[in-house]
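User: Assemble these into one structure.

Assistant: Restating your components, then the assembled model:
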Amino acid sequence: MKHVIIMPDLGQTTSEAKIVSWLKKPGDKLAMGEPLLEVETDKATMDVEAYVGGFLRKKLANEGDMVSASNPVAILTDTLDEEFDEDVKPKSKSAAPVAVPERAQPITSASVSGHIAAVPAARMLAKQLGIELSAVRGTGLQGLITKADVEHFGAQDGESKATMRPLQESRAQEAMAALTSRSKSTIPHFYVTLDLDMAAAESWRARWNQAHPELKASVNDCLVRAGSAALADSPRLNVRVSGGKSEQQSVADVLVVLGVDSGLLLVPVADPHADPVHVFLQRIKMALSSAKEGKIQGAKATPLLAISNLGMFGVKEFSAIIPPGCNAILAAGAARDQVVWQNGRAEALRVCTVTVSADHRVVDGIAVAQFLERMQFHLNSL
Amino acid sequence: MTPSLLTKERKLGIYRKMLLCRMFEDRVNSLFLQGRMPGTIHQAQGQEACAVGVCEALRDGDMLTSTHRPHEHAVARGIPVRFLMAELFAKITGCCHGKGGSMHMGDADFGMLPAIAIVGGGIPLAAGYALSFKYLKKPNIAVCFFGDGAVNEGIFHETVNMAAIWDLPVLFICENNKYGASTLIDSVMKVKTVSARASAYGIPGSTIDGNDVVSVYEATLEAGERARSGQGPTLLELETYRFAGHSRSDPGHYRPKEEVAEWKAKDPITRFETRYLSDGLLTNEIIESYRASVEQELNDAVEFAEASPSPLPEECLADVYVE
């Protein structure tokens, strides 16, 4: 017998999900309840289990495909070699014993006394995309405009709109688009750039890595640790401001920006300077590797400083957008050799150019410069 | 109370009811995955001993309130699964005539108010019922289930305090499954147990192994006797675990795999089977026949639900307002 597996309605604000990976291949046997594929919703990455046991015979969608809830994704059969037809139209629902009259036409969204009914996610997306909500046809309850309606409208209208992004885009990217536009439009950014002297840090790193080949430290690890220690020394920067009140933080958590195939991940690391070096290195490696698997740990961390690093690409310097919730983000370029004229002669220095973007509602340039001074101190004393 | 108070028939009944709870939830999950059932769901697999242990200790006329995770409470309270399944299919034959759905399971005629999904929402209603029982001199008690996430709600403190000073016949039953959605209880509560808070109100409180149905039953019965005899409320904390995520949108990645495995090893149904297979109450034949009859009962419920009519648009305000 043939069984059609559908995309369940797993999302919180949308009813579609992206197929991340197939966990089985055609011909594989599955027990009832066994995960068949991994999907990404607006909220999380999760498994879709088979509601019935059998053999996977045909995949109806590919990795990377966006599939709406209730649409078929796979065909299973009870035995491996039985014939099956590929018709996957859902069976008609059992006929109700009493006739159900035609539903009243849904009230269109614009008709309710000037107020346009839309879910908050739809409003936000429409604002981002510059779409007038009154032009969008709502398909939700009583003409309520859903996020999918806005996406649909945007896609139809997309050719002419430079801001429109394709629907296939990953949820991570979509979330990043929302976060960065919120941040840039609400936080008054200013920028402070400095060349950090990396000589001491690099020689510490060389010694450490030789002694601990199993637990190597990267340049970024050094920056995160020194940045956290400097934050702890900078009371004016390490302060949480919300609702008109400011609260001094007793810890110095750091948000590490991690690039993955699908976009950027923000990985909180709790108090990186507080533990002994080997504990810190184990923790940051664990946090980054589980983030790559889609699991963000450190829910208790409340970072006020983010660190982003493009040094591995040879970038000399750049500036970054402050993630909402943080007071500043430090953007680091590559550590490089540079000849400078000092003390009356040419000297070779190992430098790393960093640019701190900071929130001017919270700190001023002097506070950021003092923070960088402390960071240099901690890099020298790793 | 001693376990000997539970007759052989009673124990078998309890076992079948736990199976019905579990298999109901599993069937609902399967229907959800097949796209045959609308809406999301909050499932309770793993918490059967709480639902069944408590409900077994209740009498006719007692009133139960529940949470956003009410399926097993409703099954354990004895609402026929036909009506529960029809409610999930949003049919007029459902226990709330198809207007409530998953998070509002319940039927006052069966001694359970339609569940309230607001965190802690059922707690004051149970105290209200208890006040009416006391006022009308009825021998009944009101019982509210709530999760660990509810114990930091103001309404919990206000209600327990008021019930305590008035000696109301109400049981406050916390199903502590460690996580309020994704928040670990230890991160939002300084005391080690929920039951420790009972002393602040001057009422008895205890922490029970919520995966042992007999312990849950005995503790509820004892607390119920106190309440019925005018000695006021009790706070019971049942330590348990939900096997699934918070809802179908939640894969539960915030829980370590080892922790989930550890609790699955404490599965209340498997524990009951192991215990009573060895002492001869259960046999593999009984287990098989119960599973088959529960399967049949659920098949019938799904058939009933799918064949039932949907509510008509013009009926949407019926049962909403009191004249």
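Chain B has one domain: 8-305.
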